[in-house]
Amino acid sequence: MNIKGEFVIGASAVTGSASAFRAIDPSTGQHIEPPFGAATLDDVERACTLAAAAFDSYRETSLAQRAAFLEQAAQNILDLGPQLIERAMQESGLPQARLEGERGRTVNQLRLFAKVVRDGRWLGAALDSALPERVPPRPDLRLRKIALGPVAVFGASNFPLAFSVAGGDTASALAAGCPVVVKAHGAHPGTSELVAKAIMAAVASSGLPEGVFSMLHGDGRTIGQALVGHPAIKAVGFTGSRQGGMALVRAAAARDEPIPVYAEMSSINPVFVLPAAMAGGAAKIGSGFVDSLTLGAGQFCTNPGLVVALDGPDLETFCDAAATALQGKAASTMLTPGIHAAFNSGVERLSKADGVKLLGRGQQGTSACAGQAALFITDAAAFLANPELEEEIFGASSLVIRCGDIAQFRQVAEHLDGQLTATLFVAEGDREAATHLLPALERKAGRILANGYPTGVEVSYAMVHGGPFPATSDSRSTSVGATAIDRFLRPVSYQDLPTWLLPEALQDNNSLALWRLRDGELEKA
Amino acid sequence: MNIKGEFVIGASAVTGSASAFRAIDPSTGQHIEPPFGAATLDDVERACTLAAAAFDSYRETSLAQRAAFLEQAAQNILDLGPQLIERAMQESGLPQARLEGERGRTVNQLRLFAKVVRDGRWLGAALDSALPERVPPRPDLRLRKIALGPVAVFGASNFPLAFSVAGGDTASALAAGCPVVVKAHGAHPGTSELVAKAIMAAVASSGLPEGVFSMLHGDGRTIGQALVGHPAIKAVGFTGSRQGGMALVRAAAARDEPIPVYAEMSSINPVFVLPAAMAGGAAKIGSGFVDSLTLGAGQFCTNPGLVVALDGPDLETFCDAAATALQGKAASTMLTPGIHAAFNSGVERLSKADGVKLLGRGQQGTSACAGQAALFITDAAAFLANPELEEEIFGASSLVIRCGDIAQFRQVAEHLDGQLTATLFVAEGDREAATHLLPALERKAGRILANGYPTGVEVSYAMVHGGPFPATSDSRSTSVGATAIDRFLRPVSYQDLPTWLLPEALQDNNSLALWRLRDGELEKA
Q1: How far is A305 from A272, CA to CA, in rounded Å?
Q2: Is B133 part of a structural domain of the chain?
Q3: For a pLDDT cut of 90, what percent of chain A falls above it?
Q4: Is the Cβ pair B501, A477 closer than 8 Å?
């Protein structure tokens, strides 16, 4: 398939008539052909109108049909073959193995949601029997969840496949029965075009109305805001910066009809190394930490940006091991010139902050956007006094917090903003300290992990990739894992409906073999 | 128990030092003793600080202990005896039988949530097994839901028991593990004091930290806004006017850390009478409709404020029967002088609107706040052209929309804002029309009912008392029924935690005998 510089509105490939742009190869800083025309406000209107028109029909597709569509989309993405990987490498600077892995993740995500759709637990089906003899009589009540409506999805720069056009937000919204309009990320328009056309083909071959999926090029301030402001759009999924996310949150709140925004924004993912664990393996934890810190040039939402540890010789061992490991880490090309520049200025800011000392740096690189990893150290008092030290630096930069006593671990935890993850290194001897720390971490983070590193987000049933503000704009949900489908649903109750008017999921015979709550007890056909 | 004009902060009864006010008997317009001192901003601070301090401990009470606490609160409310009913009658103008029924509903609500807590499905427990041999290895992941944090609850005027101090929002938040700070409604401060002290006693006798419950007197603009703006508060429950609800939504969004607001606001609850159903019983539907319209002086969120029907002789029969039934309806005392005045001006506005004609009125009353029911008629074109006709008039006022053809039913439905309920009168002959209408109603309403009236909201598992904006500020939830607990929860994932650090609900042995998702399959011990 040639990359033509197009976007997708329903069944049509469109060359945008607004200002054109080209992708940039971050390893060279050079433009990549072809040019991409941005969408106009009319294009936004068309995509949203088609999505609204498709909604009633798409949300009532059978579980089997919707699942098969998701699987077809996955297959079509695989069938793009090496071209997809090559273009994504060029546009993102990410290496081949990483992008092949990410493609696998993208495909598995779609397949997991196909399984989730078929299972039907997401419907939350509940039936309360009528009690005609009661005074007053109890009606027959049946509940199911239905899709919220068309969803606007904003592709992320750091996962050009798994959190972009066919990424987690798109997969979970489509699974819920929501048509999707994607605003593609400007850093990988060619990758986006390829994937969008793969989904477009799956919509057509699955016999679905064309409005189920559209994807537009253009910038967030015009196209993005118009999309979020459109009356047909009923929810928003976003992964990116706090500034970008909050702009969408504000736009959604200012609508005549406010809508939910699921923005995954900013997190520094603290790692608490408790004393007994540190004593048991300071050097190993230090070098493992640097592996996690520098993975993918540190361009993960779950990158560990903070290490909290007790002052003393074990911490020195940790720091020496980390600094040594860092010296062995080659620079990686960062995703975009903008991200690279922001990383450099964040590292510079940190290096000049009061009470902050450089522990070590990774190797310098030769590519245009080479990110040179950095590790700093400060003490708890300085950290607690300076809110700037808590700001996320997107990339491989981290700060060690030296605590004078174990009580300061909890102080630091309580001081932190909401996080995607919080990590504990614990050994048997840390029982009391860990037990004391856990409630604070539960209040602050969506995922708590022990004796591991937060990078690596499993796509499964028990994953939470979310957390209190500002990690996300809505802590009640996750953007990775099976329960992400719940974000795009709302409950509807049906009272005394004649059988012929009831949705199939709520019919007496339970022909879909769903788990259902019958008078408060779970049962299956 | 004497009513002392107090509120409750944790374990302390407090006489407020801010400006004092008295309740008003709406049947006479006279003040009722004693005076109530409003809370100060210091009181708000104390209540919120206590709630925050109680949170970690309260949210980890055992399921059994928390359920027993809810049941004790219910019992203590019953034990208040006739005094509670008498005071509520005086403060609300509502009749004894209605308030006794409402007390039963309040108590049953607390008991239902006790059952829900014990059942533990709300925890959403999910376990994904580790796959150490996989490349990369899959960690052990376990998910449970935890409480959001302290919740601010705003009592409603129209349910001085069931949606006030110990009402649905309080019950569901306490069930979820959230401490609650109630801002009592100014219309029934004595009722509120009695109920608050019943809960305070239950907190103490259940051995819970005092901050689990507080209740403050004062107005929404100072005390209410301070409460919603307090950093310790993590969610808000509200039932009342659109103006009041939106003020809280805006305040919550303007915080450094935005928080969810569950505001149940405004709904006109359309009733669509399809032609075959109308032909089968126009007179009966008309008189039944008037019974629903005038129930409790029309002061229900689910009061049917709109009837949509086909023009013709059957509609005339409906209107004649409704007008006749209305003439027989005595005026009821409305809840407050303010509500009464707003009702009268709403009815006056409607009576002067272009193309609107009065069909009939109920009887005039003699009490100070007697609400005289009213029924109007207009045609679909006039309704679609004038947004004012869609505004809720709180009280027993309704508007019949005369449609020229069946296609206008859908036009009216699509034109409507979000609703708590939508009602269909249908017979076999209406299949096609009803099937065509249903998708629009699903998009617009939280509950769809057939051949009945929307007043009467069952407290059960399959109830949804919610709906798209402006019926509520968050259509993803319900404020009545068992699933209301879900509003106050967020998921947390635990990765590779040592057994001794894992919450009991996620331990391998499933000692709580919970329904859990194990690798995607539901299972019980």
Answers
A1: 11
A2: no
A3: 98
A4: no
Q: How many domains does chain B have?
A: 2
Segment B319-359, tens digit of pLDDT? 999 999 999 999 999 999 999 999 999 999 999 999 999 99
Comparing A219-223, A406-410, B169-173, the range with the smallest average pLDDT is A219-223
Report if residue A467 sits inside a domain: no
Tell me which long-range contacts A353-356 makes (C-beta under 8 A, separation of at least 24): A353/A378, A353/A386, A353/A388, A353/A389, A354/A382, A354/A386, A355/A379, A355/A381, A355/A382, A355/A386, A356/A382, A356/A389, A356/A399
Q: Which residues of A388-407 are buried (b: 16+ CB within 10 A; e: fewer)?
A: ebbebbbbbbbbbbbbeeee
**Is A458 inside a domain boundary?**
no
| Closest to A117 (Cα-Cα) out of A68, A63, A71 | A63
Residue A501 lies in a domain: no
B418 Cβ under 8 Å from any chain A Cβ? yes
Active site residue B264: yes
**Mean pLDDT across the stretch A347-359?**
97
Of A470, A500, A522, which has the smallest distance from its Cβ to B431's Cβ?
Answer: A500
Same domain? A311 vs A274: yes
B272: which 2 tokens? 């669509």
Residue A524 confidence class, pLDDT cut points 50, 70, 90: confident
Beta bridge partners of B91: none
DSSP per-residue string spanning A215-281? EE-S-IIIIIHHHHH-TT--EEEEES-HHHHHHHHHHHHTSSS---EEEE-----EEEE-HHHHHHH
Average pLDDT, chain A: 97
Instruction: Report pLDDT digits (tens) over A409-458.
Output: 999 999 999 999 999 999 999 999 999 999 999 999 999 999 999 999 99
Please confirm, yes or no, whether B301 is among the known catalytic residues: yes
Looking at the structure, do residues B427 and B297 belong to the same domain, yes or no?
yes
pLDDT > 70 in chain B, percent = 100
Confidence band, pLDDT 50/70/90 cuts, at residue A220: confident
Residue-wise pLDDT for B418-456, tens only, equals 999 999 999 999 999 999 999 999 999 999 999 999 999
A329 phi/psi in degrees, rounded to 5: -90, 115
Q: Please indicate, yes or no, whether residues A298 and A161 belong to a single structural domain of this protein.
A: no
Mutate to test the interface with B, among A476, A497, A516 (most CBs of B within 10 A): A476
- Reply yes or no on whether the pLDDT at B525 is more than 80: no
Q: Tell me which residue of A208, A315, A213 sits closest to A271, measured CA to CA.
A: A315
Pair B275, B250 in one domain: no
What are the strands of the beta sheet with B521-523, ordered from one edge? A357-361, A374-379, A397-403, A306-310, A270-273, A419-425, A445-450, B489-495, B141-147, B126-128, B516-518, B521-523
The boundaries of the domain holding residue A139 are 7-265+475-487
List all residues of chain B from 425 to 484 with a beta carbon under 8 Å from chain A.
Answer: 426, 431, 434-435, 438-439, 442-443, 445-452, 456, 458, 460-464, 466, 468-470, 473-478, 482-483
Look over chain B and give the mean of its residue pLDDT values, rounded to a whole number. Answer: 97
Residues of A with CB below 8 A from B260's CB?
A: 474, 476
**pLDDT reported for residue B1:** 79
B504 and A CB contact within 8 Å: no
| Positive or negative: CA dihedral B477, B479, B481, B486 | positive
* pLDDT at residue A336 in the model: 96
Asked whether residue A55 falls in the same domain as residue A202, the answer is yes
CATH assignment at residue B31: 3.40.605.10
Q: What is the pLDDT of residues B155-187, one digit of tens each?
A: 999 999 999 999 999 999 999 999 999 999 999
A219 plus A114 within the same structural domain: yes
**Helix or strand run (H / E) with residue B447:** strand B445-450
Residues B256 and B288 occupy one common structural domain: no
ipTM, 2 decimals? 0.97
Do A186 and A329 share a domain, yes or no? no
